[in-house]
Amino acid sequence: MQIPFLAQALTAQYGEAVAAQIEQGMGEQRITTLRANLLKTTPEDVASVLSAAGIAYTRWAAEDAAFLLEGADERAVQALPLYERGEIYLQSLSSMLPPLALAPQEGADILDMAAAPGGKTAQMAAMTGNRANITACEINQIRAEKLKYNLEKQGATRVNIMVRDARKLEDFFRFDQILLDAPCSGSGTILLDEPASYRAFSEKLVRNSAVTQLALLKKALTILKRGGTMVYSTCSILNTENENVVRAALKGAHAHVEPIILPGMETLPLLPCALEGALCVRPTAQYEGFFVARIRKDS
Ligand code: SAM
Fold first, then answer.
1. Pocket of ligand 1 contains residue 134 by CB under 6 Å
2. What amino acid positions are annotated as catalytic residues?
3. In ligand 1, which atom is closest to the CA atom of 113?
4. How far is CA 178 from the centre of its chain?
5. What is the pTM for the complete model shown?
6. Which tens digit of pLDDT belongs to each residue from 226-246?
7. 85 alpha carbon – ligand 1 mean position (Å)
């Protein structure tokens, strides 16, 4: 592999055979996937439009609104009028898992703690039919503008955007549910044939990400209501950013990991995960590498 630190870290964590499988997945070309936006359309209507445009697809067992395209790239999708109308959103299958694991509830106060560009915020708005009160926090002003644009385009109307460092949110806030899709090294999204996908990746980025992730997760556990649920996710497959962060944050906190149970879970390519109940998805042609842990705060 052309990234020696990553090769070493993967072998140390998973052993040679699994690391080789991961490397093979990172060498594949990833297919285009999208989510039908249930705030504006139905999966049936999206299916008809794709068929009429000559775009072949399959459906995903874990989410009825998800489509896996065969032989169509993102540009072909962006050329469709329903893309411009916000009726579909280009989103990887793995990145649909954190909202599915959280199961956002209508009427709930939900915090999306690191929200831009907003794929998961919009997904949660769609899952609740715009009937949850969502606060979307983002530290970066330019990315927050992209978030606002995407939410408007998707018709997510009950979202309040906060441009803030979520680590510094006041401790008196309380949310029923929190999604922390944390900033990470992106080790799970690396495509070995696309150097741009790993230009920013480094050992230092992994280390620094882990520090930020721990601070964000500790804050999330503070402002989550008692008995409330949260999801911690990253698009990294390294335990430094995943299992180790969750374990460190849970030390002394009155909260525990809950098993994630989703339809079609048996079809996910899962990596061995050192945190019981959490999921770590192996990168393949269909999936980005992703880590998802569901946590409940004790009542
Ligand atoms: N959940 C998003 C989605 O599905 O579209 C992707 C989130 S991305 C992995 C992480 C985001 O967190 C980035 O937009 C980054 O600017 C933001 N971020 C990083 N540090 C943050 C902090 N301390 N507080 C709030 N947002 C932060």
1. no
2. 235
3. 25
4. 13
5. 0.98
6. 999 999 999 999 999 999 999
7. 25
